[in-house]
Amino acid sequence: MTNFHLWTVGIEGHPAAKDLIPKFDRQAMDRTIGDIGDSFYMPAPKWSKDGKRIYFVASDTGSTHIFYVPSGGGAPTRVTKKSCHVRNFSLNGRTTRIAAVISDLTTPGKVQVMPAVYNGDSRARVLVDTNGSFSPRSVSRRSARSGSRRMTAPNCRDFW
Hints:
InterPro entries: 6-blade_b-propeller_TolB-like. The chain has strands at about 5-10, 20, 45, 55-60, 65-70, 75-80, 85-90, 95-105, 105-115, 125-130, 140-145, 145-150. The protein is mainly β. It has one domain (about 5-150). The strands form four sheets. Strands 3-4-5-6 form a four-stranded antiparallel β-sheet, with no helix packed on it. The chain is globular. The relative contact order is 0.13.
């Protein structure tokens, strides 16, 4: 099995190729099994504007997360912590925020914006919620005694 890591190499071979995450016991790619999407798409690593960090995705215990590593190598830092699958992501021009398409067990994909730092997804703002239109916000039922009755469930979530 091939172990995919992040490497840097000089344009003409100087400096020599260097594995930036030699002790990272994960694939620097999406290896999460899922039922939507294809298995051949992989978001490319992205450099920070100042060239000090490289952002990438990696699968970790059933989830796919965004990580960054110093451009000279070292221990990766995980940006997303929640149990999720990061389908794709991009950095804003100043490398302070990440826009990402993220899915989980109850949502096929949300577009979220978050800080480009450790645990950034805890402060994410949802821009597009694809599952929101499928989830009912209220349920109506007819009762023999009281006629029509409407119950509102603002935090209703579908689990199929």
